Structure formats: C-alpha cells, structure tokens
Amino acid sequence: MGKSAEEIHPVKAFGWAARDQSGLLSPFNFSRRETGDEDVRFKIMYCGICHTDLHRIKNEWGGSKYPMVPGHEIVGVVTDVGSKVQKFTIGDKVGVGCLVGACHSCDNCVNNLENYCPRRILTYNATYHDGTTTYGGYSDHMVVNENFAVRIPDNLPLDAAAPLLCAGITMYSPLRYFGLDKPGLHLGVVGLGGLGHVGVKFGKAFGAKVTVISTSPNKKKEAIDHLGADSFLVCRDPDQMQAAMATMDGILDTVSAVHPLVPLIGLLKPHGKLIMLGAPDKPLELPVFPLLLGRKTVAGSGIGGLKETQEMIDFAGKHNILADIEVIPIDYVNTAMERLVKADVRYRFVIDVANSLKA
Ligand SMILES: [Zn+2]
Ligand SMILES: [Zn+2]
C-alpha cells in the first residue's frame, strides 16, 4: 500500500477549488507537504487570475482534475525554510509562477529552460514528484522547492507584481530570445489584455517604439495616454494598415481567438518576427508566400525558465514595470471569472488572499 495524500502532505491548507466543469469555485480544505530540506514555505498574500485558470477550471483544454485549486501568479512572504535552502530566509518576499518542478537533467533544464522540459510540473492540476496533485495559489500558503521561487524586488508592490510571474515572463522571454530587446526597434503588440498591456511596458522599457494593434479604435486613448504606447493601429482599417506596411521589427501577438495572420506579416520589415503568445484552440491559416518575400519568421514562445523569470522581475523592479490590476476578495472570484469571459477587466484581477481568505 502506498501512503495516502494526507500522510505525504500532513500540513493543513485551505483554499478555493473548482469541483467540476462548471468551474464554480468554493472553499476547500486540503493539505500540503512538510517543509523539505530544499523547500520554502510561504504565506500567500496575493494571487493573479490568469486566463489559463478560466480554461482549466472549465476543462476547456481537457485533462482537468478536480478538485482543482487554480492560481499561478502567486506572491507571498516566507514563513519557513528547509535546512539546505540557500537563497531565502524567513520574511523574504517571494513569487511562484507556472512551474513547481522539472526533471533537472534534460537539455532544456541544463540550459535553464525548465519551461520547455518535457517533465515540467505545473503549479496546479499536475502530479508532483511524490505522486500527489499540485494545488495553486487560491490558497492560504504554499511550499515549493527553492529553485522554483523568485525573489520579488523590494520596490515592487506585491499585488501588482503578481501577474508578472505569468503574464510578465510570457512577454519578456520572447523579446529577449528573438533579439527584440534592442533600443530603437519598432514593436507591435496585438491585443490589449492581461498579456498585451505588460508587453507594451516591457517593450517601452527596452527602448522600442511600441504600436498597439487592435480591432477596437476605442482603446487608442488608453493605449497611448495610459500605457505609454507610441501609436495605435486599428487592424480593420485598410488605410491605416497600408500606411504601416513593412515598418515593424517584431510583433507580439497575444490574441487567443482565431484571426488572420497575413495582415500582421505584412506589417513586418524583411527579417521581421511575428511571435505567437495566445493559444487559439483551432489552427490559423498561414500562407507561405508572404514569409518568403522578406525572410520573415512566425514563431511561438511559452512563459520562461526560472533564471529568466528572476531576471524579468529584477528588470521590472529596475524599470518600475507593474501590471494594471483590480484587487478583489476571494469571495468575488466567481464573478471575476464571469467578467473575464467578457474581457471586462483592466487588465488583471488579483485576489487579496491574505485579507479575504478565511477558513
Ligand atoms: Zn498564466
Ligand atoms: Zn528537464
């Protein structure tokens, strides 16, 4: 007989969980493991609500396991450290993003790309090394191997820093990897949601000219006056699109609905790169001719490794990059999910876990 989950995880925990595909979240008692030698335990202060959480609680991508405690934009304060922990001490401000484990031996892991490890372990709805289910940040505390926690710079407020752990690294990593982090480049950002709005901020911090590309002209004022974009392009306006042809070095495409790529490829200069970051559930049409005529690239990118996540959050600290958030109590979470379906949030909900989660 194997050990029960309670024997492996003897520390009581409390959070909110989805019980079935309705996705409705409700209070949930569970347990977490004791602090291992290389683990840090922390009290969760805030947790962002990522669009992934919405897909997962409703099993829209398949493979959802219930009860499910979602949440992978987690920040908190360390309350306990294992005997071999080197990076953290009690009282440190830490963050955990989408990953809590990996194999540590494959080429990806060796190159600090745990995000591409075939045996990476997601923060929730996954199976941990000990065979138990992982639970995310809509909960009172968490315990994690120190290699999967990052240090939050002191100048960043924890609530608005939380979304950087998923949305932030999702934007930062492709800018770095694809060489779109050089001053003076012209970057496009398609879609002005949780991902896109931090994409604008990182692009500006790298010294790019940033153009927001959107279907709706009424986001122009917000994009330029509030988020600091340099210009705004309505992709349904043929005159505007024609005028902007072949002007961009790179485009971050955050749209997760099916949409035409050819107009975006047309905006790229020769050697330009269109980076796909949303996750449409159906294939997109990709004619090849527009790529040949200009040696253009269409690529994808998914979150980032832990080393780069620390680098991203340090960069955010240095340049004061934060998500724009609406802080909510945990008992508002089901309403927040309904609003998220309608994209009715500017731009990320963040749950005030420490002040609103009561066992
Ligand atoms: Zn996410
Ligand atoms: Zn690996």
What would you note in describing this structure?
- This protein has helices at 5-8, 51-57, 107-110, 158-161, 167-177, 194-205, 220-226, 238-243, 262-267, 289-292, 306-319, 333-341, 353-356, and strands spanning 11-18, 25-32, 39-49, 74-81, 93-96, 99-101, 121-122, 141-145, 150-151, 186-190, 209-214, 231-234, 248-253, 268-276, 297-300, 325-328, 348-352.
- By secondary structure, the chain is α/β, with parallel strands linked by helices.
- The protein folds into two domains: 5-166 and 324-356, Quinone Oxidoreductase, Chain A, domain 1 (Alpha-Beta Complex), CATH 3.90.180.10; 167-300, Rossmann fold (3-Layer(aba) Sandwich).
- Strands 3, 4, 5, 8, 9, 16 and 17 form a seven-stranded mixed β-sheet that branches. A six-stranded parallel β-sheet has the order 12-11-10-13-14-15.
- Helix 5 packs across helix 6 (194-205) and helix 5 packs across helix 11.
- It is globular and about 65 Å long.
- The two termini are 32 Å apart.
- The model has no long low-confidence stretch (mean pLDDT 96).
- The chain binds zinc ion (2 copies).
- One zinc ion (ZN) binds next to loops.
In short:
The protein is of the alpha/beta class and 359 residues long.
Query: For the terminal residues, how far apart are their CA atoms?
Result: 32 Å
**How big is the Rg?**
21 Å
> CATH H level of the largest domain: which superfamily?
Medium-chain alcohol dehydrogenases, catalytic domain
Give the uncertain stretches in residue-range form: none
Tally of extended strands? 17
> Major sheet: size, sense and barrel closure?
7 strands, mixed
